[in-house]
Write a structure and sequence with these properties.
single chain, 529 residues, mainly beta, Rossmann fold, Neuraminidase, 6-stranded antiparallel sheet, 32 strands
Length: 529
């Protein structure tokens, strides 16, 4: 049943708590939620006596009825869960916690119901372990946090390890790290401003290397003796501007192809194109003729393997209204395989799937970079109020009425759509819980001027679904510069993945011509869970 909430401010948490409790208590083949149509028969009735509860269970056809109450008092919330059985037994338990601790408290109450009411085998030990670890940062309800002195846990500012790799002196101290901080590697400065980065095996020798893209040039590097060693570079047409570079083995020959999504004639008709290259003999070779598509690589369910997706330009909009398609390489070109079921605001660059047990959440960034979370059925569940993954890479918004296109743009009246940097889903623990890594740009000027897209600082945030919304699991220390792309790959070829950040140095509001590119790698110690 829906949770009763005594506060208008937190009224929205009632359905969220109901959904979360329903999913946590489900035990396939033993205890499963009543179908929505059956539950609807109860209407909004809330039982006050055992006879009321039994009457509702008779209408619904249920063996158990679970009700809840959330009593908000200033910064505290008293949560109560009550279980009624058809045989006349009742069970209840309460928890009083700070508002920000409500989700973990509901997790604990759900665990107690599974153990004490449903007698689910194996839950006794798990519940006891949770009680012992409630003050530990790895408790159920909080996402796993890789150990690195450059990471801050949640919103507390607490570091999982100290700046020298040892324990923190005081959990309230905020460590900013330094040049001797372990777990962080930084490349040399490269004399161009990057727009995108991709890491993978494009040579075919089972070793990862990195592709960097500037506005009109593609570069290949390899990690060698603690630096990035140049391998090759290729200039594109001066009429082209890169949007995103991706790596994927589309022809299944054992090495990744380099896929470059560009806009051709960016100040005129602005046609999308995808260029595909192979790396051979120390240079880039064109694999096939370009196709008029925006493309990107996304992990699609149910396998979550990297998959190429694409979308055409619309007749009167930037992106084709018919949506996106999964693409395959056949007959020497890219062919659509199937349409993807996505919200109308989705395009190849702004969405990711977040695995959630046997299901998933779909996360889409809107035009302002605010994350929106959908169910598999495209039911909106959450809208964020902070922007993420901003970039300076843009295309012109094509939003003109048929017959009103004059074939030119009026100076000063252009509307841009900024291509967000990629969203990275990843799991840092063995329990299959996934998080999303995104960049949070920090700039006062960008808050005032809409088209100001050079940020002096950024932070990588790892977000997890807590049953109600996206919550912060951990974040990096402040990154000095404009973050242009992120990745989660084994750049160093050590057998362990690193969090990779490609950024441009920030030299002031009018210093764009002096920007340089730097790649930073953070070791992700996920062994101690």
């Amino acid at each position: 049943m829906p949770f009763q909430v005594n506060s208008d401010k937190y009224r929205y948490m009632g359905p969220g708590a109901q959904s979360m409790m329903s999913s946590r208590l489900a035990w396939v083949g033993y205890f499963e939620p009543a179908p929505a149509a059956s539950a609807a028969r109860a209407g909004n009735r809330i039982p006050t006596t055992l006879s009321d509860a039994q009457s509702i269970m008779g209408q619904v056809g249920a063996e158990y009825l679970v009700t809840g109450n959330l009593d908000f008092q200033d910064k505290q919330v008293n949560a109560e869960v009550k279980v009624w059985s058809r045989t006349g037994q009742t069970w209840s338990k309460t928890a009083s916690v700070p508002v920000e601790g409500l989700v973990p408290a509901l997790e604990r109450l759900a665990g107690d119901v599974r153990t004490e009411v449903f007698k689910r085998p194996g839950d006794d030990a798990r519940t006891a372990a949770k009680k012992e670890a409630r003050k530990d940062q790895q408790q159920q309800g909080k996402a796993a946090v890789p150990k690195n002195a450059e990471f801050i846990v949640g919103d507390t500012g607490e570091a999982p390890v100290g700046p020298s790799g040892g324990p923190v002196m005081n959990p309230q101290f905020r460590y900013e790290g330094g040049t001797e901080t372990p777990g962080r590697w930084q490349s040399q400065s490269m004399r161009f401003a990057a727009t995108s980065m991709a890491v993978g095996d494009f040579v075919g020798d089972k070793k990862n290397r990195v592709i960097l893209a500037s506005a009109t040039t593609i570069y290949a590097y390899e990690f060698y003796q603690n630096t990035l060693k140049p391998m090759a570079e290729m200039k594109l047409s001066v009429r082209m501007k890169t949007l995103r570079v991706s790596l994927l083995d589309i022809d299944h020959d054992g090495r990744d192809e380099i896929l470059v999504s560009v806009v051709d004639d960016p100040e005129g008709n602005a046609e999308p194109k995808t260029l595909i290259f192979k790396y051979a003999g120390g240079k880039f070779e064109e694999m096939m003729k370009s196709v008029k598509l925006y493309t990107a690589v996304v992990r699609l369910p149910p396998s979550y393997k990297p998959t190429l997706v694409g979308q055409r330009k619309g007749f009167h909009r930037s992106f084709d209204e018919s949506g996106l398609s999964e693409l395959v390489y056949q007959n020497g070109t890219l062919e659509p395989l199937r349409k993807l079921n996505l919200p109308s605001i989705a395009n190849p660059f702004n969405f990711a799937y977040l695995p959630d047990g046997n299901n998933y959440k779909l996360v889409v960034l809107n035009e302002y970079g605010y994350p929106k979370v959908y169910t598999q059925d495209l039911e909106a569940q959450y809208s964020g109020e902070e922007g993420y993954n901003s970039s300076a890479v843009y295309i012109f918004e094509e939003d003109r009425l048929p017959g009103m296109d004059m074939g030119r743009r009026e100076s000063g009246t252009e509307v841009f759509y900024y291509i967000p940097i990629r969203i990275i889903p990843a799991s840092f623990s063995g329990n299959g819980k996934y998080e999303l890594m995104m960049n949070k740009d920090i700039s006062v000027a960008a808050q005032v001027f809409q088209k100001f897209r050079r940020f002096s600082q950024g932070e990588i945030h790892s977000m997890f679904w807590d049953g109600v919304g996206l919550s912060l699991a951990w974040k990096t220390r402040r990154i000095k510069g404009t973050v242009v792309d992120i990745g989660y790959e084994d750049l160093k070829n050590t057998g362990s993945k690193q969090l990779l950040v490609c950024m441009n140095t920030y030299t002031g509001v009018i210093g764009a011509s002096n920007e340089k590119t730097v790649v930073v790698a953070y070791d992700m110690d996920t062994t101690a869970k």
